[in-house]
Amino acid sequence: MSRKNQTLGEFIIENQGEFQYSSGELSRLINSIRLAAKVVNHQVNKAGLVDITGTAGETNIQGEDQQKLDVMANETFISTLTNRNIVCGIASEENDDFITIQGQGEDHNNKYVLLMDPLDGSSNIDVNVSVGTIFSIYRRITPAGTPVKLEDFLQPGREQVAAGYIIYGTSTMLVYTTGHGVNGFTLNPAIGTFYLSHPNMTFSEMGPIYSVNEGNYVHFPEGVKKYIKYCQEEGEGRPYTSRYIGSLVSDIHRNMIKGGIYIYPKSSRAQNGKLRLLYECNPMAFITEQAGGKASDGFTRILDIKPKELHERVPFFCGSKLMVEKAEEFMSNE
Ligand code: AHM
Ligand code: MG
């Protein structure tokens, strides 16, 4: 149920009953994410004002520079969730290994694990382009009351109980699903409250946009090269327009609103592409499917892939259903 002027807090409570295991724990978790999002939003919005941009001088497990705001966002989400004893484990793009959270007494029975990219697209911060947080939530599969194990995090994406993203853009939005459609909430910064602004978000079956980093064209598989040419040819609704921000959350968010396809394929330089399965592609794929779209690695449904490791990468084709299917057709012909 959604209604005019509904706040995110009200929406969470009013829709709690939709969730089959409802005990309030997932609601408390989403509420904590909402709180952390506001803190990170505040930090991101100050980025141009104080000297907190630039790298923190450390490198994450994938050999990339960590931006200072990456570190802050990571710490904010981890401490918000840890202090509230609300999950039993967290995996983050910024941490080599997962974190085990040992609660006290009854809290020891927390049943959810959270995987996240605390600040995706962070190379865009210094040029004032939108960045985002992505999160994915599963029920643990090992027994409650024991420390979490790797297998709790390596579940196929179809087992997600909730997923979402926060986009720190011209306005800040939190968009999420618990498997009952996708809803978007916009932050009113004056009073620090998220309001339902985009109820029941959907991907149109076809759209006017294709989004891919064409600078890598010569390294792409033949199927992708041919699909890009197809996007540029005259035809039904074509040529499509090209839009690529290089910030996954913003690119997918725009395409969900306007209709389109996002592709980050494998290349001769990166056999599995760039994006990470567990905390980038899976949550975006869950949201996309819940919005009527489709997400695959070019051949296989993203949500059916059995993960092998925490930071694994996967090619990503995501967006309007018929467009993804067309791209898959080009891939299968190769
Ligand atoms: P990051 O997690 O290091 O920020 O990288 C992920 C980002 C995505 O937001 C974006 O879609 C992609 O990298 C852009 O990569 P490229 O610059 O190779 O096009
Ligand atoms: Mg990322």
User: Strand order within the widest sheet?
Assistant: 4-3-5-6-7-8-9-10
By CATH reckoning, the class of the largest domain would read: Alpha Beta
Give the beta-strand count: 15
Spans where pLDDT lies below 50 across 5 or more residues: none
Helix count from the secondary structure assignment? 8
Q: Any idea what the CATH superfamily of the largest domain is called? A: Fructose-1,6-Bisphosphatase, subunit A, domain 1
Describe the sheet with the most strands: 8 strands, mixed
- Broad structural category: alpha+beta
Report the bound ligands by name, code or SMILES.
2,5-anhydro-1,6-di-O-phosphono-D-mannitol, magnesium ion
Strand content: 15-25%
Radius of gyration: 19 Å
Q: How far apart, in Å, are the first and last alpha carbons?
A: 45 Å
Q: How would you classify the quaternary structure?
A: single chain
**CATH A-level architecture of the largest domain:** 2-Layer Sandwich
| Order of SSEs | HHEEHEEEEHEEEEEHEHEHEEH
Salient structural properties:
334 residues, alpha+beta, Fructose-1,6-Bisphosphatase, Chain A, domain 1, D-Maltodextrin-Binding Protein, domain 2, 2 domains, eight-stranded mixed sheet, 8 helices, 15 strands, 29% helix, globular, binds 2,5-anhydro-1,6-di-O-phosphono-D-mannitol, binds magnesium ion
Describe the protein in words.
The chain is α+β, with helices and mostly antiparallel strands. It folds into 2 domains: 8-198, Fructose-1,6-Bisphosphatase, Chain A, domain 1 (2-Layer Sandwich); 209-333, D-Maltodextrin-Binding Protein, domain 2. The protein has 8 helices and 15 strands. It has helices at 8-14, 25-45, 68-83, 150-153, 222-232, 248-258, 277-290, 321-332; strands at 55-59, 65-67, 89-92, 99-100, 112-120, 131-139, 162-168, 172-177, 183-188, 193-198, 209-211, 241-242, 260-264, 294-296, 316-319. Strands 4-3-5-6-7-8-9-10 form an 8-stranded mixed beta sheet, sandwiched between helices. It has a 5-stranded mixed beta sheet with strand order 12-11-13-15-14, with helices on both faces. Strands 1-2 form a two-stranded antiparallel sheet. The termini are far apart. The mean pLDDT is 92. The site of magnesium ion has 4 residues, from strand 5.
